[in-house]
Structure formats: C-alpha cells, structure tokens
Amino acid sequence: MARQSNIDTTRQEFLKESYRKENTLRNKWFREHFGSDSLPSGIAGSDHSASPVPESKVGNRGKPTFIKIKPAPATPTRRPSPPPKATEPVKEVGPEMRAASPDTKKMIYTGLSSEGNGRVAYLVKRKNKAPEEKFEYPLTSALEVGWNIKEIAKTAEIKEVHYGKSRIVRDTFFAESGVM
To answer: Staple 20 to which of 48, 65, 113, 125, CB 3.0 to 4.6 Å?
Structure first.
C-alpha cells in the first residue's frame, strides 16, 4: 500500500506563496533597520530571495567588534582540612514506645491467632493501653490533643455519653438566650 501524502499542487502553491511573503517581510524589515546601502549586491531588487545576512554594519554602528575574554584564574590548591574537634558524645534517644511487660510478650508465643490467642491477644492487649502508658511523650500533634485526658476529665464537668448522643454542640456553640 502506498503512503498517502497530504500535499497536492494547490497546497504546494500555497506554501510557495507563504514562503515568498515571509521573505519579502524579512527583506523589508532588514532594509528599514539596516538601510538599503548595506544590502549585499543582488538582493536589493528581488523580493523573494533568501534573507540577507549583513557582513558589516554601517553608519554610526561601525564594524562588529570581538569580545576579549580574560582567562579564568588558576584554581587554588586545596589546603588540608583541620583535624575534627573533640565533641561531646551524642545522647542516644531511647525507643519512643515503651517495651511491653514480660507477661505481655509471652502472650505472642502461646496459642493460635486464629483462636484469638498468640499474636492477636498480644495486639489487643497493647491496643487497650492508653497512649500515656505506651509512650514516653506525645509523638504527634494528635496525641498532644488527648494527652492525659483522664486527668483533665476528672476536673471538667464531662458526663458519659450514652448511645453516641451528647449536648456538646448545644452547650458550647449556641449562645444562651434562656429559650431552651
């Protein structure tokens, strides 16, 4: 199967005309900015020839100048670095989570997880511990919010909520107007 081309004679003529117009505009711009005297010979009269490239500039502009570049300074030799200063030993931070008690650790090796013993029982027991009992300090901002909540609850007037219903929004959000 032959390769299909999108170019027919109409398209070719369109492209030729576009190229001629573009060349004409380039030559016009060149004449306006560099003057007709600086056009290379043979280009001044033709509108559809290749774009002219000036060999030199005319008028006050003079000939193109070459930029003199200074050589880069020599790379300084490396000085030996001073010996490291004696510093204080870095204090090693202990584990962030407190270790489980020996009885809790033994739970991992007793029984089958599928029966609710072994690893499952160990994880359930660790899950039921409060964060204050498992960690030395709050690790995240979420832990900071609820850190020592049991002590705060003793002093605050918080009542146990039954069936997930509470009056927190009504008691803290709405202004008291004496209506309810």
So the answer is: 48
